[in-house]
Amino acid sequence: MAVWALLIAGVFAWGEVLHRTGRSPQDSLPPLHATARLLTWQLLPAAGTAVLIVTVLPMLARRLRWPLLVLLAWAAAVAWASALAISDGATGFTGPITQRGEYFNGLPSIGDHPLRWLATFTQKAQQYPIHVKGHPPGPTLILWGLDAAGLHGPGWAAAVVITAGSSAAAAIAVTVKALAGEELARRAVPFLALAPLAVWIATTMDALFLGVGAWATALLALAATSPAPNRRRAMACAAAAGLLLGALPYLSYGLLPLFAMPLAVLVLARPRWPVVAVVLAAMTIVPAMFTLAGFWWPDGVAATHQAYLTNGGSSRRSYLYFLIGDFAVLGLLVGPAVAHTVPTLARSLRHGIRGSMPQAECAYAGIALLVAAALVGAVTLDLAGLTRGEVERIWLPYAAWMLIAPAAHAPPGRRWLAAQAMTGILVQALIHSPW
Questions:
Q1: What number of helices (H) and strands (E) belong to the chain?
Q2: Residue 345 vs residues 246, 362, 418: alpha-carbon distances, Å
């Protein structure tokens, strides 16, 4: 806990020195791409929601039937993210996805010809808003599809993003149940629903990426652990998992390290080869569709790298500062409850690797491996040096998996759940993020 607190405080103090001396001009509040502020009464809805969840959800997590609990986790996550966002009024939901440089401003370039736009995406990438040219075409096409389906405007887009991002609470709980048992999954649910990272679930497109990645991993876990008689169900889950996993690189180039999560599932579950074969076959479908439509993924990476160098924002930030500072941001996203559990999980992982853990405690090693896989993905992305700042949104697909760490401690854990809620409220009260 001391390391967690000192890391965050030290990095913000270091960032203030860099900003005041002109060595971090891109950000007003490094390591966050945000500004300082103070909200008070505006956070009453968030405080009320937090009190309700802290009081009720740990009890319901022990008593409700599993299908109902999964839906409740999803609903609670939606309510928590929305209660935080409403402190900024209606713009708390729609403002982040309509500001300059976001995907919405790239929709006019598609018009009524998405295939023509896709075929020329890399050639014209430098003409598009920063987030459009900084990502594969998938996110912009999703927003175009919503509009084409009659769901016009940023309100519908925000609803889809928040719903998808919050659904990760359900998906991760399903994964934990499949790999580590129902008891640990029930312990994890309150922490998945009441997470500090909900500040950025509403509203950033990275929350959508979180949802896709979480369900891809959950479906893979279900396929890998399905009993032999349920072969049809296992194959269906495997095919769906493969489709979503194949879509991840076309949502964000920064999601490649997230494949550490399905790899961890394969290590823990050791599925039958037909399941793996179906997953691998389904993973080729989305890449094949994009390639046939004229978008060659390596060319997209090259175009984004060119935009990264010419835009000048991230590429000019200090590598050393953000190498360390990005982990302070990760600490804010996951909260003190996760930091408190790190030593316990480290011991579980070490004993699990050595094979010295009692059979009754092997499930804890499963939790530890999932958390470690998410951390490995984040570390890989951080070392690459392409995530210099703005990681409060980029970390979402990774940080959410670390929220299962407190399941290693016995319930009810209301004190730590309250600490998680307080962290989220303080971040929302003191920091104004463009996302």
A1: 22, 2
A2: 30, 12, 21
Do 41 and 166 touch, CB atoms closer than 8 A?
Answer: no
User: What's the Cα-to-Cα distance from 294 to each of 6, 56, 106, rounded to whole Å?
Assistant: 49, 51, 19
Residue 169's identity, in one-letter code, is A
Q: What is the DSSP string of 185-231?
A: HHHHHHHHHS-GGGGGTTT-HHHHHHHHHHHHHHHHHHHHH--GGGH
pLDDT in tens, 300-334: 999 888 877 776 557 678 899 999 999 999 999 99
CB 140 within 8 A of CB 103: yes
- Do 33 and 389 contact (CB within 8 A), yes or no? yes
Distance (Å, rounded) from C-alpha 196 to C-alpha 426? 9
Q: Report the DSSP pairing between strands 431-432 and 35-36.
A: antiparallel
Confidence of residue 412 (pLDDT cuts 50, 70, 90): low
Residue 26 CB partners (closer than 8 Å, separation 6+): 33, 313, 314, 316, 317, 389
pLDDT band per the 50, 70, 90 thresholds, residue 229: confident
User: Burial letters for 299-331: b for 16+ Cβ neighbours within 10 Å, e otherwise?
Assistant: ebeebbeebbeeeebbeebbeebbeebbbbbbb
> Sign of dihedral through CA atoms 373, 327, 389, 212?
positive
Q: Which of 42, 34, 35 is nearest to 86 (CA)?
A: 42
Tell me the one-letter amino acid at 336: P
Place of tokens 């103070």: 38
Which residue type does 361 have?
E
Distance CA 15, CA 29 (A): 7
